[in-house]
């Protein structure tokens, strides 16, 4: 679907769905939702109001829902932002914490911060509170792009962590991944994530789904694909690259690690209390590593 450029204003207008007044009248007369936005007089529902945009009977307008949503989203926002920022600060400020594994963990924290800052507030306001997109045409593709990219970065960073742990457990005497190699791996993760999610930025635009949005000059931000086939094939590719591939890799690496750690018995005098405590610690570490899979 082509974009239109206004040479006089220098603005790009996104494709919109517009309906005639006759269609709007028919929709209003047949849909009780629209009746809440019209003040009836002698000639019918022709005096239009857009505030509030949500109908009074909607659960999204209920005070208990708003208070609950603000509370839960507030907790998620603060905990995610502060927690991930602390991870970055600790690794940056303490030299001995700058290990290969911690580099990957910092990259994971950065992707979470990106999601927290750019996606959580906008999704919360536009989806639950307002029911329309108030942030302008420019932020629509940017936010959708950032959201998709951050999810891919998280998934591929988990893959990198699992491979690093797998190599350390399966071949402990071999040379470990260097910090330079870890940085190159992180760069590759970001390049792959930004490339795979780029189509989302191209098809995300403002959209008016029904006459109510048209008359109120309200929009929603969503993906408008040129054809259903393109959307279908991209969705399948995204499912494979974003979920199935990471899931298979994580299941393989952590299952192999678990089998090696649980099945390995220390030689000689390793039955003493000290080595038993070490074995229990290893099992706890493996349990924590398995929790990474749940993150997907």
Automatic annotation (TrEMBL):
PANTHER family: GH23382P, NEUROPEPTIDE Y RECEPTOR. This is Similar to RYa-R: RYamide receptor (Drosophila melanogaster). GO terms for cellular component: neuron projection; plasma membrane. It is found in: Membrane. The lineage of its organism: Eukaryota, Metazoa, Ecdysozoa, Arthropoda, Hexapoda. One of its GO terms (molecular function) is neuropeptide Y receptor activity. Residues 83-296 form the G-protein coupled receptors family 1 profile domain. The chain crosses the membrane at residues 70-92, 104-133, 145-163, 184-209, 232-255. Its main location: membrane. It is a multi-pass membrane protein. Keywords: G-protein coupled receptor, Membrane, Receptor, Transducer, Transmembrane, Transmembrane helix. Belongs to the G-protein coupled receptor 1 family.
